[in-house]
Design a protein that fits this description.
It is a single chain. The chain has 291 residues and is of the alpha/beta class. The chain is 33% helix and 22% strand. The strands form two sheets. Strands 6-5-4-7-8-12-10-11 form an eight-stranded mixed β-sheet, sandwiched between helices. A four-stranded antiparallel β-sheet has the order 1-2-3-9. The longest helix has 12 residues. The chain binds zinc ion. Zinc ion binds next to loops.
Length: 291
């Protein structure tokens, strides 16, 4: 509750601050949505990032995610389960929970067959995804901004989670993030890090709430609920198209059409089915696309 009051106070105090895009620093931005009268979502007319105003500083953001971060109704994202529940989760490899990512494990194995997949789990929280990747035989290098949560991962799931990006391994096949990009104060930093940590054929894969126009047209109420204190950014296909304008990409939303992705030539730029809840991007960010 305190977080919400602080957030609204900050929003009011900074209401008249000039909106500057946190991704490309353009001042050419327009209001595209509002809530609580004073809280506004802007669209950058240059890169098409949607961001709430005021933006957070990098320091505020880092501090917030150490301890304050709790998502209501999100179950085990931020709440650590008790010992008995945890043993069951481990035994079942998180099957039947919202943290089960076997659909991604299976997709990644099909995308990169016949080799041990090297993957970065960026924004690993307390490691429930890294745990499953490890069980699938992947070589996992994990990063989490919150020091206490990274320590929990080690303690509860025996996964090594780094809290400094310098410690992440190089030459990876996949840079994966799930529900991370919408929280970041500096998205280009993450994308540049991914470029650095991926090999030549490495794929940047991110899942986040879908801010695309097609989703908004279909679910205007859900669109309005998806940004705010916890989600300072709202990512759309337009933003990814700008950020990856020189790279091959496949942008879609859930449910993912696995067969269609596997048939993609990996050289061109594809956007398909953008009205689902979650936006998912696959981008070969160390390669140039063919027109
Ligand atoms: Zn911008």
């Amino acid at each position: 509750m305190n977080n919400k009051i602080n957030y609204l106070t900050r929003t009011i105090l900074h209401y008249f601050d000039k909106a500057i895009c946190p991704s490309c620093q353009s001042k050419d931005c327009k209001v595209i949505d509002r809530k609580y009268l004073v809280s506004r979502l802007f669209e950058c007319n240059n890169c098409h990032l949607y961001f709430r105003h005021p933006v957070d500083s990098i320091e505020t953001n880092k501090e917030f995610y150490q301890e304050d971060y709790q998502q209501k109704g999100e179950g085990i994202t931020t709440d650590i389960p008790d010992r008995i529940t945890l043993e069951k989760l481990k035994e079942n490899n998180f099957a039947g929970t919202s943290k089960n990512i076997q659909h991604y494990v299976s997709l990644f194995k099909q995308l990169i067959p016949n080799k041990t997949i090297k993957i970065i789990d960026f924004g690993a929280n307390w490691g429930y995804q890294s745990f499953q990747f490890k069980n699938a035989g992947f070589e996992v290098s994990s990063y989490e901004i919150s020091v206490p949560r990274a320590a929990m991962g080690k303690k509860l799931l025996n996964v090594e989670i780094h809290t400094r990006v310098e410690e992440l391994s190089a030459n990876n096949d996949i840079f994966f993030s799930s529900h991370v990009i919408e929280h970041l104060p500096d998205i280009p930093y993450m994308i540049n890090l991914a470029k650095d940590k991926l090999n030549e054929n490495g794929i940047f894969i991110a899942e986040c709430p879908n801010g695309s126009k097609e989703f908004r047209a279909k679910n205007p109420k859900a669109f309005n609920l998806c940004w705010g204190l916890l989600h300072p950014n709202y990512i759309s296909a337009d933003y990814y198209q700008y950020m990856f304008k020189n790279n091959p990409y496949y942008i879609t939303s859930t449910p993912i059409n696995v067969e269609d992705i596997l048939n993609w030539d990996r050289k061109t730029q594809v956007c398909k089915n953008l009205s689902g809840d979650q936006l998912v991007v696959f981008a070969f960010i160390n390669q140039n696309n063919t027109p």
